[in-house]
Amino acid sequence: MAEPPLIELIDASKTYGAGPNATAAVQAVNLAVRAKEIFGIIGESGAGKSTLIRLINLLERPTSGQVLFEGEDLCTLSPAALRARRRRIGMIFQHFNLLASKTALENVAFPLRLEGGLAPRAIKARSRDLLDRVGLSTHADKHPGELSGGQKQRVGLARALACNPSVLLCDEATSALDPQTSDQMLDLLADLNRDLGLTIVLITHEMEVVRRVCDRVAVLDGGRIVELGEVVEVFLDPQQSITRRLLRDEEPPNPAGEGRTVRLIYRGAVTSAPLLGRIARETGVDYSIHAGRVSSIKGEPYGQLTLSLTGGDVDAALARFAAAGVRVREANS
Predict the structure, then answer these.
(1) pLDDT tens column, 49-82
(2) Of 12, 76, 124, 269, which residue is most buried, by most CB within 10 angstroms?
(3) One domain for residues 238 and 325
(4) Any idea what the Cα angle at residue 244 is, between residues 240 and 249, rounded to 5°?
């Protein structure tokens, strides 16, 4: 029997304003996040991503619907009970949100001081441990103005971990960083997920972020989830036009070639197998390659190849690809 989701949104909607000026930012979203997974939410600017992630910890309260955390509807809690539950849900922000007048160590210690229950010495020790965890032990006494963007984001991450949350929400946590620093941040998030069993929900407009670290992904368009699934499935076989648009650098084009134009989709060990040449020889087909890509998703290799087949027995060739574990799609499908 499957475990119940850690986070669940049921028909959750958020509307700003009223009457003719009303704007529906999130519309009837149903979403379940499993414990210990990294769940991505992707969409273009204005799709409702930031509003959606803020519904999870009720920084934005839904206009209608339910927000469940560990089976409990957060919308029904008293302010004091909600504050207690929020300690289990950490959050890092695109623009860091650090206190400029406090050092890195003091920023990390801040939520622990608000929570109470720990002696000053214990707070300082835990804050130093967290800075060490994110690789900033030598920057404890620096203020945010003395830190790089990547360092500020790691201070924000250490602060979000201070109260031992079971969930970490990441609001465009890498979009303000350069590519190398972004990669380092994603590696750190993956380590925390693996080592601590931390459930992570991140929003982004960058497919590379999803490809590198996420287990599942939801595609948001106009405040609605239009596609949801395992990352590798969504990347290899996107069903919606918005997903294909977001995947413009992942999905090969669909040229009109001579003969029969198809897309071959490889996954796992078959990606590196010498299938094309062998099957072409066995079935007598000729081929023209229009586009191709080999990459990986969380370490699993995948490939896409768009080509036109002429001559010989094309149907037999396609059947042999399918028998070898390669998905075959007509290029215009």
Answers:
(1) 999 999 999 999 999 999 999 999 999 999 999 9
(2) 12
(3) no
(4) 165
195 exposed, middle or buried (CB, 10 Å; 0-12, 13-18, 19+)?
A: exposed
DSSP 3-state assignment of 194?
A: helix
Q: How buried is residue 231: exposed, middle or buried, by Cβ count under 10 Å (0-12/13-18/19+)?
A: buried
pLDDT confidence of 30, banded at 50, 70, 90?
very high
Structure tokens of 39? Answer: 């769940």
Q: Is the dihedral of CA 327, 216, 234, 287 positive or negative?
A: negative
Q: How far apart are CA 103 and CA 118, in angstroms?
A: 20
Looking at residue 276, which CATH number applies to its domain?
3.30.70.260
Burial 158-185 (b: 16+ CB within 10 A, else e): bbbbbbebbbbbbbbbbebbeeebbebb
Token pair for 102 = 């406090």
Q: Residue 128 — pLDDT band, cuts 50, 70, 90? A: very high
pLDDT at position 232 is 86
Whole-structure pTM value: 0.86
H helices present in the chain, as ranges: 49-56, 79-86, 104-115, 120-133, 149-160, 179-196, 207-213, 231-236, 241-246, 275-283, 314-323
Give the mean pLDDT of 300-309. 87
* 18 vs 170: which has the higher pLDDT: 170
Could you please report the per-residue DSSP string of 305-320?
A: EEEEEESS-HHHHHHH
Specify whether the CB–CB gap between 207 and 245 falls below 8 A: no
| Domain identity same for 163 and 115 | yes
One domain, residues 101 and 139:
yes
Q: Give me the percent of the chain exceeding a pLDDT of 90.
A: 62
Q: CA-CA distance, 217 to 203, in Å (whole number)?
A: 10
Q: Which amino acid does the sequence have at 258?
A: E
